[in-house]
Amino acid sequence: MKPVILLPVFSLVLFAVVVRAQDEDVMPALQKNEAATEATYVGNPVAIKAGAELYATVCSGCHGPSGEGGRGPSLVRGNRVRQVSDVKLFASVQAGVPGTDMPPFPFPDEKVWQLVAFTRSLVASAYESGVPGDAGAGETVFFRKGECSRCHMIRGKGGFLGPDLTVAGVTNTIAQLREAFLDPNRRTSDGYRAVTVETTDRKRISGIARNNSNYSIQMIDKDGKLHLLAKQDLRSIEFPRKSWMPDDYADRLSEDEVQNVLAFLSRQAAHHLPAAPKQTGVVNR
Amino acid sequence: MRAGILGAWILGSGSLHAQVTFEDIKNSPSENWLLYAGDYAAQRHSPLEQINRGTVDSLVAKWVHHIKGSNKLTSIPLVFEGIMYVSNNNEVYALDAVSGRTVWHYRQLGVEMDRVNRGVGILGDRVFFVTSDCHLVALHRLTGGVLWDHQYADPKDGYHCTVSPVPVKDSIIVGVSGGDSGIRGYMTAHSPSTGEELWRLWTIPGEGEPGSETWCPPLPRGEPGSETRCPPLPWGGAGTWMSGTYDPELDVLYWTTGNPWPDFYGGDRPGDNLYTDSLLAIDPDTGKMKWYFQFTPHDVWDWDAQEFPILLDLPFEGKQRKLVVQANRNGYYYVLDRTTGEFLLGTPFVDKLTWSSGLDKNGRPILIEGTEPNLEGVEVCPTVRGASNFMAPSFNPDTGLLYVVVLEGCDVYTSSEKEPIPKTNFAGTGGERPPNDNNQFFIRALQPTTGERVWEYPMTGPTTMWAGTVSTAGGLVFFADDDNHLVALDAKSGKHLWHFNLGQPLYSSPITYSVNGKQYVTIVAQTDVFTFGLFEAAKPVPLVGELGSP
Fold it and tell me: Can the peptide bond before residue B220 be classed as cis, meaning omega within 30 degrees of 0?
């Protein structure tokens, strides 16, 4: 019964996980042996499982059962969680985030570390997940047979219409990479919607809407030309329902080729990499 | 040969979009604003004149862009062909310069340090910026995609990085911060195509190198023979975080250096402590020093020389000369010959200057006894923030005046004889405001070859701002004051013409640019980017649905 009673009390859970530099003064006294503590919990399947159970009890009301966000921000989209350290994440949970709807949760340290471990597992990057496959063969598919580089750029090589994938391995989970690769129409990708506009002087422009409001639209076309347009200068605007990303790679490529491309993408990172990928308890394929 | 390499990597990218060329940068500012300093000479004078003495009263806010999570934005934005590039710590935004909407955003992940950032550099199809932990990163200027990432300094050695990279021909020049923590300062040049380090110039000399004799005796104290030998110092300061200037005709780079360390105790570093608090003239192809001028030898007040070294071609005592001028943190305004480094003139640009009675014929300060920091504390003027600092000055060739942000003030400087420990930020205590001080900021218009004051504009406020100026052919000087206003003055008379309350402190300097024939003025405030333009009546906008699919 106790968790049921507590549920409404903790419905404001984990609202914002970003702790900024000036919030360090509210950090609990957890600096001692922090490296050892992190190593005990983060990436530990037992801690992740315990954290998942606790998360479902106290956090999912605001952040969503799978962390996709709801009343509170998404924990898995963007870099909100990735850009903070484990210690700051710990502090965000235990001390809350002053000035936001995220209240403190003064659980014992062990419970908070379990929540940190679970949250980290939600955003475990494809890079650190150790995705199996032949990355070299995947690179060949990416730049040749798959024609991925017609739209996607890696380290300056490729096209302009799709997201740059130079750091795709550290900014996506393997699940996110797989979904974007094989089921691109499932989720709208902000900043990458296909669009065609006609200006008042009858010029038609097709490209990707990097940003769009009632008053202006910022587009990039296939040649890499940016079009910064005021809506008052447009006659029409059309967003096709389907992404320009092909949705038939599961048919066009073999299962091994798909896995090899995912292995290649998972290794895309430009900086700040750990010496070797660490296993985080997530399922890779 | 090097220009050929530049052409090769630009063409190699195979893109059809416009490239930012070295010529574009030499012509900045125009419609574009392509350097932290605005132009290679750091005159910060824009030829734009749509906003002028007659129209400035119609200047209105056009857009505000909030930088999420920012605490102290310090960057000066760049603008190229309608896109504004503005940085925060470890991140860069590309904005539509007309609407303020985001085109792309790049965040460097995994950086534990969070220091200020002064802005980006731009060349070819790429934007360059430094992370707090000293990675120089090249981003595609149209997509924000990473092209390369090169770490050029190690935070474990006390360094952090804030500098706005400076493109010079086919190299990108950057510097380091950490002079208050006992770093050994240096600056580097990098290939824009790969990030490879092309040269490194140490601003603290190595063993046996010229200048090493100015650091005797060595640490640690009491070590046998420490009084007689002068080994290389693994520390010493001389940070290089201020973007330099460049003379394309002479092909000389001018870069300034920061304070010696420990900041306020000189007992362990008797001597001039080269090349701290100096202006260095450098061959941009090799990194070799051509000459130097040290403003504050054996500094014990933390008076970095990291104020803009402004390049001017003006008659001096009847003869046309290539000059470099600087309103230095130590309170003196300097005029040097930038071909030779010859000292031509030095005169106070503040009234409150108590540490020195003047400069000798070589420009060396004549010290006043009893002004060195001590254990009890001694009141000395200027303040530890200096008579000026990184707040940008500007020069208007039409009025012939140099506009300088000036802080009239004093601090109580306290020292310590504690053994300094490099990389721990022990600075031998410091400077603090005396009780009942009456410190005050001014904009002063100086005659640049004499230092004579032509007019001044006093400010109210808490003396906590760090904002500078921009001059325009419209006869205006824009600056941000000490009470959070963006202000426009008549460049000739200093008369107030316009102001706007930004509602937040300022740590950056304004710029101006033009898109589709319309001039804008932008300033980065504490957490937001503000842009202004001339009033236009609103036009009807078709709503979502009227144009087609939303």
Answer: yes
Would you state the torsion angle of the CA atoms of residues A157, A161, A163, A164, taken in this order, to the nearest 10 degrees?
20
> Which of B99, B143, B148 shows the shortest C-beta gap to A216?
B99
* Nearby residues of B351 by Cβ (< 8 Å), 6 or more positions away: B408
Of B147, B126, B86, which Cα lies nearest the Cα of A164?
B147
Tokens matching residue A236: 């029409």
Q: In what order do the strands lie in the sheet with B83-88?
A: B78-80, B83-88, B91-96, B102-107
Shortest CA distance from B543: residue in chain A: A214
Among B356, B316, B306, residue whose Cα is nearest residue B339: B316
The active-site residue, picked from B125, B170, B277, B302, is B302
Q: What is the ipTM of this complex?
A: 0.85
Residue carrying the six token digits 């005592």: B317
Angle at B259 between CA B354 and CA B135, to 5 degrees: 150
Beta carbons within 10 angstroms of residue B546's beta carbon = 11
**By CB neighbour count within 10 A (0-12 exposed, 13-18 middle, 19+ buried), where does A171 fall?**
buried
Distance in angstroms (rounded) separating the CA atoms of residues A198 and B357: 70
Distance (Å) from the C-alpha of residue B224 to the closest C-alpha of chain A? 39
Whole-prediction pTM value? 0.89
> Which chain B residues have a beta carbon less than 8 Å from that of A153?
140, 143, 145
H helix runs in B214-360, sequence order: none
End-to-end CA distance of chain A: 38
Structure tokens at A8: 């409404």
State the Cα torsion B419-B423-B429-B430 to the nearest 10°. Answer: 140
Q: Are the beta carbons of B330 and B301 closer than 8 angstroms?
A: yes
Residue B170 sits at the vertex; the CA angle it makes with B20 and A271, to the nearest 5 degrees, is 85
Chain A neighbors of B145, CB-CB under 8 A: 153-156, 164-166
Token reading at B544: 């979502």
Q: Do B15 and A224 touch (CB under 8 A)?
A: yes
Name which of A22, A153, A191 is nearest B140 (Cβ-Cβ): A153
pLDDT values of chain A reduced to their tens digit, one per residue, 285 residues: 333 333 333 333 333 333 332 233 333 334 445 666 777 888 889 999 999 999 999 898 889 988 888 888 888 887 778 878 888 899 999 999 888 888 899 999 999 999 999 999 888 899 988 899 999 999 999 999 999 999 999 999 999 999 999 999 999 999 999 999 999 988 877 889 999 999 999 999 999 999 999 999 999 999 999 999 999 999 999 998 888 899 999 999 999 999 999 999 999 997 645 443 443 333 333
Instruction: Find out whether A209 and A219 touch, Cβ atoms under 8 Å.
Output: yes
Residues 6+ positions from B444 with CB-CB distance below 8 Å: B349, B403, B404, B406, B453, B455, B456, B457
Neighbours of B500 (CB within 10 A): 18
Of A69, A55, A75, A70, nearest in space to A10 by CA:
A55
Which residues in A lie closer than 8 A to residue B96 (C-beta atoms)? 211, 216, 218, 228
List CB contacts (< 8 A) between A228 and chain B: 82-83, 96-99, 103
